[in-house]
Write a structure and sequence with these properties.
Blueprint lengths: L1 H18 L16 H7 L10 H9 L13 H6 L8 H31 L1 H38 L2 H41 L3 H17 L6 H25 L6 H14 L2 H32 L4 H4 L3 H5 L7 H40 L2 H38 L8 H22 L4 H32 L48 H4 L68 H4 L8 H19 L4 H23 L13 H17 L36 H28 L5 H10 L8 H12 L4 H7 L14 H23 L4 H24 L6 H21 L8 H9 L5 H10 L5 H11 L3 H17 L3
Helix pairs in contact: 3-5, 7-8, 7-9, 8-9, 8-10, 11-14, 11-15, 14-15, 14-16, 15-16, 15-17, 16-17, 17-20, 17-21, 20-21, 20-23, 21-23, 23-25, 25-28, 26-28, 27-29, 28-30, 28-32, 29-30, 31-33, 32-33
Amino acid sequence: MVEIVFLLTANFASGAKEDISPVSDTPSVPSPPSTPVEVVAKTKDEREFPNDPTTEAEVIASIEEYYFRDDTFDSSKYELEKIPDLLDQIQLSTIDEDRNRLRRQLQAVTKKMSDVILENQASYSKELRRVTELQECLENASIICRDGRSELHTSMQGFTVASLGIMAKHKKKLQLLNLLKSLHTIKTLQRTDIRLREMLEEEDYPGAIQLCLECQSAVVTFRHYSCISELSSKLQDTLEMIEEQLDKALAKTCTDFDIKHYEKLQAAYRLLGKTETAMDQLHMHFTSSIHNIAFQIVLGYVQLVTGSTDSRFQKMQFKDLCSHVDLETYIPCLADLCKALWEVMKSYYKTMDWHQKQSMIDENTSSEEADGEDSIGSSINMLYIKQKLEHGLTRIWQDVQQKVKLYLQATDLSSVKYDDFIYVLDLVNRLIDIGKEFCGSASEGLHESIRTQSLSYFKNYHNSRMEELRMFMENEGWEVCPVKSNFTVLNLHEFRFLRPTSNTKDSQVPNSPSSPTLGSVRGFFEKFSEKGSPFDKQLEDDNEETGILNGPSDEGMGFDDSDDEDEVPEELKQDFIDEQTGEGPQRGRFGKKKNMETMYSKGPTLCNTTIKVLRLYGKYMQMISVLKPIAFDVVLCMSELFDYYLFSIYSFFASDVSDGAALGLNSKLWTTLKRISDNISQQLKSSGTMANPMQVPENTGFPRVSPIVQLSGIDHIHGLAERIVGTESLVFLAEQLEFLQPHLEAVIPSSKKPFLLQFYSQTVSVASELRRPVYRGVASRSINLERIPQMMMTVRWDIKDIMSQHSMYVDHMLQIFYEFNTRLEGVSRRVRIPAEAYKIIWEHVIKLANRNMVEGFSNAKKCSNEGRALMQLDFQQFLQKLESITQLRPIPDKEFVEAYIKAFYLNEVDMENWVKEHKEYTAKQLTGLINCAVATKRTRNRILNVIEEFEKSRPR
């Protein structure tokens, strides 16, 4: 390759030397060199190869890579090193072939370079002309410079020494004037220190900084004076002192925000160019203020209780310090803590509000000025402050929440009073509402804290109330508590939040009786922006509470809010007084003065314990509003109260009677009672459940009826008055729970509503079913009809003549009913007998009488048609007299006796079908009928076999 380049260089050099001419002043354009084709033609020999473009490209491509590596490559040496030391004929031939190959490559490269030079010949000519033009321009510039130097020399010769002296003196004068001005300025700078301190005392921070910056600028101007260096250092110290005072003043805005004061601070930081730094410092001060304020408030109460200023308290962690707060000062400390933290949050809120308004003003100003660079810088600064403030909302609230959370968790509140605990929760709920308005936080930490405290408190509170209820039940005399005829839970003070007001027509579960309704119209920060706080003691409702006691005046007769209040005024402990007439109950038999519906349609029958339970329900529902996280637990405890009351009423007034199934305990009521009984067994950690829920377990925590309550004795119908009060109180309690059902459904989670529906359907709804076992048991034990079947055995039923006079046993049975009715009237003077109770009692008494009559008829050995007529006469006489005793219409269960008497008239064929259809009679009664009415022995035996099979299949 070197040989190729050498040959090309030699060719071009020889051509160029022929055209070079001597250099002259006027440049000449050299003629272009001879073309490479001509050069190649001159060096061409007999071994020249033909030109072929395709072959030439292949030849160029076949050149070895070593030829292109660098300029120092020695191609001759490279080719010579290939020749071996000993040569033979074959190797000579190979060398000749390599020589031809190299010549062919040289010819191709030469041809290629010649072509490239020809293509660029026009550019070469053009560039040569430009060089010529540049040379002409340089000659013109040389002429101009020579003329300028000549003129300058002439000017120098024209000035005199005098004129130069005048100019020197004038210059000196100007220098002296500048010196005088500088001295005045230096004198002023030395006096600025006093003025700066005065401005700092006046809190004129922008003016002080402006003055200090101007002085610093002047110091920089006069820094060449030696007296200025000390002044410069002093001004720098003063500026740092101003920044320190600014930082202290900025920290004060965290607890007491003042717009004018804050505007001065922001103007000062703007002069310093540290608005972003000021914002960072402000957030640090807010965090520090929250910690310091919380610690100092709690420390103050701890020292107040301990009566000492022990330094160990000051070194404690906040969490440990909170555990030393006494329960007596717990609520005041919490209130003050919330108020102080509220002030911090309010200051932050006002800070944000000021920056938002200032941002709007700055945007309007920047849009009017339309200064590009300054406008962009201002926008970036405003954006940074806005983002910093928005992010700081959550951080500030988390710090506040953490302090209150630690305070709540440090003390066990399970033993505090109900009103105090409600107030604590009320304060925390207000703080949660503030947090939601402040930054939209859900306050999970506070919710978890109050949930933990609420569970602990409510568990203890509920256990205390259950024990208190047991005490009430054991001391209850089951006397009627005189209340208004329209009394409901809405008359109780605890349910005042459910009463419709002039503003709202629909009742709804409130947040709390004392919880603020702030935020519904105006937010906390708007309402209390100037004075007050959401944690100030709320005033009690001044509205007069509706009285619940019956009488001409309710004044002084209402129940107060204390848990231990259970007494009724003595003047109200009297017989039932009609509200309309003011008269006592009418004497005489039922129905002779007033009909049954009028006599037994007055107000509810309930006792003091029922009112106590209703009040507990009211308090529990109030607690739900502030114990939202454990709302379902509260509702569950409300159901336990009702279960306790239901089973207590049953154990007092129904468990002392005979078989419950015979007294009307349906399967639903039986299941409910058994479930409650099983729960009692589980509480006792018993391995098995009770086989019979009719038996009240020993030592279960369930109450025993008071010894003063007499539930036996025929004179007062085995405590019918007390049983009525207890049972009807339970029914009234169930009715009030039905009224409260929508409110309870509204406060519990949707996933828990099936439990509530089950409670109402399986427990509350069966409360009225307890009337039957209670009243039927009383009826069974209060009337003795055992002699009736014996007296009927003395009656002859095979008489031949139709009797016009009824049998004596009918009069005896009616006399028993007259006496029973008289005792009922005596009970009615003590307590109003509800229509339901009256109906159940008489229905069961009449049913017992009918069963005894049928039992007496079944004892007949023989019976004629005249005897059957006597049976009908006796029964009709009984019905007729019974209608004058009781007001029940129609007389119940009379079909039972009438169907049995009519069966005596049936023939043998119809008798068998009748027996199969009437399974309500006992086997003895059916057997007596068949033996008396069926004469054919074969038919009698067949029917008796049917009765026997039926008796075997009858459920036991």
